[in-house]
Amino acid sequence: MKGVKNDISVPAQSKFDQVRKNFARNWQIYVFLLPAVAYFILLHYIPMYGVQIAFKNFFANLGIWGSPWIGFDHFERFFNSYYFWRLLKNTLILSAYQLILFPLPIILALSLHEVRNRIFKRWAQTLTYAPHFISVVVVVGMIVIFLDPTTGLVNRLILFFGGDPVNFLTSPDWFRHVFTWSGVWQTLGWGSIIYLAALSGVNPELHEAAKVDGASRLQRIFHINIPSILPTIVVLFILNIGSFMTVGFEKVLLMQNNLNAKTSDVIQTFVYQTGLLEGQYSFAAAIGLFDSAINIALLVLFNSVARKVSDNSLW
Amino acid sequence: MKRITLSDKGFDLINTIFLLVILVLIVYPLIFVLSASISDPQAVSSGKMWLWPVDITFKGYERVFANDAIWLGYRNTIIYTIVGTAIHLFVLLPCAYALSRKELMAKKLILWFVLFTMLFNGGLIPTYLVVKSMGMLDTMWAIIIPNVVGAWSILVARAFFQQSIPDQLVEASKIDGASDFYIFIRMVLPLSLPIIAVMALFHAVNLWNQYFNALIYLSDRDKYPLQLILREILVVNQMQLNDPGGSAESLVDQVKTAGLIKYAVIIVSSLPLLLVYPFVQRFFVQGVLIGSIKE
User: pLDDT digits over A92-109, tens only?
Assistant: First the structure.
């Protein structure tokens, strides 16, 4: 019929026509994408393209494109250097230490979930979230204050109980513990939010049924609550693995000094030091690339393992 | 029939004690710093002050407020946070909304374009070189632009738009002749205040607390944000707090007040966020929750 437009009766359009029509009608939606697309191209994709300097000898006057290719020389130099094993070991140990403590926010969430007094629960949540809002600079500043060898609270307690003061901040033996446990202090409460949400979604009928069967509170936590939030746990675990080699190096950088470098030197701080402080751009970019390659490999590996054994995965 | 057995009571007791211990461990350092900031430095360093303030004095705060570097850093941080958050929303919201519309073509491709940046990035050095080549070194933009928006935020905001903006509403308005610009600004945004608040708060906290971008991109001290000043005072111990006029204070006194300033400066820099967040906590929690919805 003339004059009546009906999408169904319109004969099959060519793909090109469809695209053109969609664009004519909805072009403003594509404009909405422009700022974000421009940002991702300029500050993510162009740096990705710039990663090629890892395989080049970068000269500022020649630019990224014009600098000469040298293949894997920087990687070889890094792998053969005496500090390679030290950096790798420090990075892996620090990451593994943090990963071992991955269950702590889960335990806090399980415990908070059992609290019946609502006011106590609210206060406990608000107070445990607080450190999340403190900057990493202030946290390290507080570490310096509390662990000071003469005036710090911790050492005064050690003295009080008859021990010898420990200089935690310059000790390679203590660096990992101080770094990791101060991180627990800061992220414990915040990390529990997501598990608390998952717990509030547990079907109450399961608990009723278990009660009838005479299951205790602890039994119900182990046989109902934990299995119910397992998918959440798996997904967050994989996400954690994806940044395994990154180890929160902005904090490492703040806590690092010449005396504890034996354990606090990690790959990322080394990239910062050689690249930005010493200006060896190509060499540092190669080390950074090595680091993110391991991250991606771990992410893909653990994702496929998780998909096989538990049906829960990121993709 | 509810039956509270003895073992249930025992469980509650142990659980409460467990939580109280954790609460004390988390809150004690904060209370200590707060009390120390208004106590006599002598009492703090000798251990007389261990929980509540002793010999209250506000000298630390006086010194902090008399310090130009701290004021300037504070001002810079406020500017960077406000401008950065505004740009964040300007980039994030239209993009997330567009990705939530079903008439958008090549949506999968664009989503991958965004998500891939989560998986892989150029790394510290290439990013630095790009920021440098764009002429942003030593400007406010070097603090704001490199982390304008993350893929995660886009996914979260998109999920919100998909759930809470009814398709019929948009379609009906379009039939009435409204443009997408009009619909987005006059209808979608007013309906989306919760997600706008969540995203703005998350980003503002990050901007307020970050120091690393400033460390690598800024060299002009007048542009330093508060966190870099704090780093000098708290971590590097490079205090330039002595009065230039050459005060009559002895070196011992100076060291003592130096300690006092550390506590006061922690409070002054952290208090705004610590005071505000309990009131907007539900927004933060909401943000984490929307983010956890798996697609």
Answer: 999 999 999 999 999 999
